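Protocol step 4 of 6: structure prediction from sequence.
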Amino acid sequence: MYDRIKELTNTKQTNKETGCIRSKGGSIIFDQQEISSRWVEYVTELFGDERKPKPTINNEDGSPILLEEVKQAIKSTQMSDMEKLLDLIASKLRC
């Protein structure tokens, strides 16, 4: 309630109302062009991806891996994990 009264009486100051942000060095920027440049710099630093490119994997040693083989491997792994979980639960219930 206190915050709502402050908001309605317009005594709460925010950067949105003043139209300024801080530079990388900590000084306050008022100019709109500099503010835009600072946002570009900030977002570039935040989302900049400097990872190396993914390596290329060549399967030259055998036949290509089939989609069905991958599906079957995933399915069998999931079933064995599920069976282990059910065995664990059953052993706890027996105690």
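Step 5 (inspection) to follow. The longest strand covers residues 21-22.
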